[in-house]
Amino acid sequence: MPDRATLQIGQVAERTELSIKTIRHYDDVGLVTPSARSTGGFRLYTDADVRRLMVIRRMKPLGFTLAEMKDLLDSLAVLDDTAASPDEHHRAAEVLRDCHDKAETSCATLRRQLAYAEEFAALLSDRSAARYSAPTA
């Protein structure tokens, strides 16, 4: 019998704002494997699984590849593992630094693109307001 603390895939999709199809894909490629299955074979996720999916959701718009996502998730697990060797911790910390650097660069790019988009929207708004405002006589 599944633990009450598990969630079905639809509940996970709502919490993470990822589609069910995407969550299944992440299972298929080995990024986030559900912690359990119901007697009917349905995927069941724990809070830890949801946290992994949230890391992925945050990485996705920043252009990280599936391989980079897996490396980071594995590295985060190593950093949380007190039994991991110092070499494993060192490598995991390097992956974390590399991902941080890429995230910072991607955020800067997105901020710049957002500024361009807002400038464009303002231009269109100004032009639209000027064109459709009734002349006063």
* Strand elements, count: 3
Structural class: mainly alpha
Give the CA-CA distance, first to last residue: 78 Å
| Shape descriptor | flat
- If helices are DSSP runs of H or I spanning 4 or more residues, what is the number of helices? 5
Largest sheet: 3 strands, antiparallel
Average pLDDT reading: 92
Compressed to H and E, one letter per element, the order equals EHHEEHHH
Task: Give the uncertain stretches in residue-range form.
Answer: none
Spatial extent as radius of gyration: 22 Å
Describe this structure in words.
- This protein is mostly helical.
- The chain is 67% helix and 5% strand.
- It has five helices and three strands.
- It has a three-stranded antiparallel beta sheet.
- A hairpin with a 5-residue loop joins strand 2 and strand 3.
- Helix 4 packs across helix 5.
- The protein is flat.
- The mean pLDDT is 92.
What can be said about this structure in brief?
The protein is mainly α. The chain is built from 5 helices and 3 strands, in the order βααββααα. The longest helix has 47 residues, at 86-132.
Provide keyphrases for this structure.
single chain, 137 residues, mainly alpha, 3 strands, 67% helix
Topology summary:
Blueprint: E1 7-8, H1 9-16, H2 20-28, E2 36-37, E3 43-45, H3 47-59, H4 66-80, H5 86-132
Antiparallel strand pairs: 1-3, 2-3
Helix pairs in contact: 4-5
